[in-house]
Amino acid sequence: MRIFSSIKAVQKNLKPLWGKKWIGFVPTMGALHEGHLSLMRKARQECDRVVVSIFVNPLQFGPKEDFKTYPRTLASDRKKAESAGADLLWTPSAEEIYPAPYRTYIEVEALGSRWEGASRPGHFRGVATVVAKLLQVVRPDRLYLGQKDYQQTCVIRQMIRDLHFSAALRLVPTRREKDGLAMSSRNERLSPADRQAAPVLYQALQQAGRIVRQGERDSQKILQQVESVLRSEPRAVIDYAALCDPETLEPIERLHKKAVLLLAVKIGPVRLIDNLFLNV
Fold it and tell me: φ, ψ for residue 204 (rounded to 5)?
């Protein structure tokens, strides 16, 4: 695995491959876990070259969020990425990605303004901007993202379409711990008591799946069940629970075909998100 920090070095290495070899790209913010590695392995199966980036993007953190405390574990991340099949690891600095004076941003309207966008103003502007820049440098054939951050994948898919990027987005299922908790770098910040409480998100999703399989189609009744499970855990504080169209992310009143259930819940000081596709 080759490791580069500069844009010029990455492009010099990849340019001979553009249009000749399949390039798979996995953008990350580091603190790699099995969820990230599953994306890399999927890319390894489907592509000739696998590129991984590690960049903690300051634009997608709000003023009261955890940018400074976000885990940075580059030494172990290098080993994990190489073991998962990465050919090239790109570790740019903020100055490299956002050269001063920086004045250009990308915003995906509607998809980026609700749910996570409403709870974290400016978050998806930061996400869309950095992913567009990463895609412009790497020029991959396939972009691999995890389902856990489902709204983010919708925003990026729309941006790819609107700005005519050539990368095809590949959505990889969420990897979970044995108790159902979605793997996330933020899980490391959970206290032992909060970690024990955190699987309540998965339990709420599973309850929704059960009642849909039993025939329930009314969104409000499904959400009432979901919120009841979440409130049974004293450490859980609900930010939102929403049943949405999986393409537009607009709330729906009844299930007719496929929907996505989105959750954002604070456990102690750590805010967790999760989701589940529901099929009729």
Answer: -65, -40
Contacts of 178 (CB under 8 A, 6+ apart): none
Confidence of residue 64 (pLDDT cuts 50, 70, 90): confident
Q: In the structure encoding, which two tokens stand for residue 229, read together?
A: 């499970």
Distance CA 37, CA 22 (A): 19
Given the residues 33, 36, 123, 164, select the one marked as catalytic. Answer: 36
The DSSP secondary structure of 208-267, one letter per residue, reads HHHHHHTT--BHHHHHHHHHHHHHTSTTEEEEEEEEE-TTT--B-SB-SSEEEEEEEEEE
Find out whether 179 and 74 touch, Cβ atoms under 8 Å: no
> Which domains, from first to last, does the chain contain?
2-172 (3.40.50.620), 185-273 (3.30.1300.10)
Q: CB–CB of 268/194 below 8 Å?
A: yes
Q: What is the rounded average pLDDT of the residues 159-171? A: 98
**Does the active-site annotation cover 36?**
yes
Average pLDDT, the chain: 96
CB 72 within 8 A of CB 30: yes
- In the chain, count H helices and then E strands: 10, 9
Q: Hey, what amino acid is at 217?
A: R
Give the pLDDT confidence of 119-162 residue by residue, as tens digits.
999 999 999 999 999 999 999 999 999 999 999 999 999 999 99
Work out the average pLDDT over 31-60: 97
CA geometry: angle 235, 71, 265, nearest 5 deg: 25
User: What does the pLDDT read at residue 131?
Assistant: 98
Q: Dump strand ranges (E) for 101-215.
A: 142-146, 168-172
The residues, any chain, with a CB within 8 Å of residue 58's CB and separated by 6 or more, are 67, 94, 98, 126
